[in-house]
Design a protein that fits this description.
Layout (H helix, E strand, L loop, with lengths): L43 E2 L4 E8 L4 E9 L7 E6 L4 E4 L10 E8 L6 E11 L5 E11 L13
Parallel strand pairs: 2-8
Antiparallel strand pairs: 1-3, 3-6, 4-7, 5-6, 7-8
Length: about 160
Amino acid sequence: SAMPARPSTDATPQLVPPPKNTFDPTVPPSPTNMPAITGPKTSVQFPVMAHDFGKVKQNTDNSYVFKFTNTGKEPLLISDAKGSCGCTVPEYPKEPIAPGKTGEIKVVYKPGSQQGNQNKTVTVTANTDPPQTLLNISADVQLDPASAPMAAPTN
């Protein structure tokens, strides 16, 4: 037998879908590694996005300047530039780069006691789409005989 239709005078309040701009706990938060950029976006162009230092000695300072151009229509704001490890320290302009203007990010790579082929990245975060640009540096770190401890048997 068919169930009778529920009368419309039912006491249960109808669920009103919330407006879209309210927080919805079922929507996962945007991943933290892609920060939300507020305000107008622009575009950036790095003519060189990877640099190989070649053979370098341990415990040396190796710097390279990545140049870039704001190719968009809005001022370029770099909010962060981070090396993938403490041995790679980028310096970046804190002031806005006007459209059509160029800027530079200086990366200092200090291999310390690292050896062999090293690949490091610098993540540049700006008001671009996508917000992050990856720059790469690499080096072939040579053992510095002066700083190497006496050859000890490795067990």
